[in-house]
Amino acid sequence: MVKIHPDRKTLATGEETSSPYLTTEKESFTIWMKSLVFNTNGCTVFDSKGNIIYRVDNYNSKSCREVYLMDLHGRVLLTLRRQKFGLFKTWEGYRSPTGTAESATNLDYFRVKNNMFKIHSKDSSSSYRVTTGSCRNNEEYCYKMVTRGSSLGIEESCGRLVAEVKRKQSRNGLELGDDVLTMMVESQVDHCFIIGLILTHSLINCKL
Fold it and tell me: pLDDT tens-digit profile of 65-107?
């Protein structure tokens, strides 16, 4: 089951493992909703030291049916695919254990779909249900993504906030462009999985 805490079991092995992408303490990341390839469509993620840790290169395409989350060196970590399930916009994410899109396995996957209708107001909000599991007959509702205005929160099913994304501010408190974001991730959380959810949210809303 796709979990964001290290003391949970993974689906692929059935054994307790520690992800190399776990935060050891509360950490901040910067998300630039552009690819480094000639500023084309995509996404680049920096850690607090300014190092690139994730990237998405969509080149001239937008709202693709399949998107790859890669590390700096182009190794595929997650494959995100759009699926058709009724009237809802639904995306599924698959781990790629060997670093290629072909290695994506449904043994370790998550699904995100719109859970509520958007409320068109000044403080507009919407909710997205995140289910995880080894197959569609063995899913578990584990997380929820909630947008409130321009911020996005990722919560466990019990309501505990594990990550939050907002527009990045300068040291003077001024907001930067709407394509530059700050992501705060709590301790002992798999930030690769969190980035996968954030990208999925952007895909559902046609922002990537």
Answer: 889 999 999 999 999 998 876 666 688 999 887 777 776 666 5
pTM over 0.90: no
Burial class (CB in 10 A: 0-12, 13-18, 19+), 27: middle
> Which CATH code is given to the segment(s) 23-99+106-205?
2.40.160.200
Report yes or no: 160 and 166 within 8 Å, Cβ to Cβ: no
What is the distance between the alpha carbons of residues 161 and 109, in angstroms, rounded to a whole number? 21
Contact status, residue 94 vs residue 86, Cβ threshold 8 Å: no
Residues with Cβ within 8 Å of 49's Cβ and at least 6 positions away in sequence, in order, are none
Helix (H) or strand (E) holding 199: helix 191-204
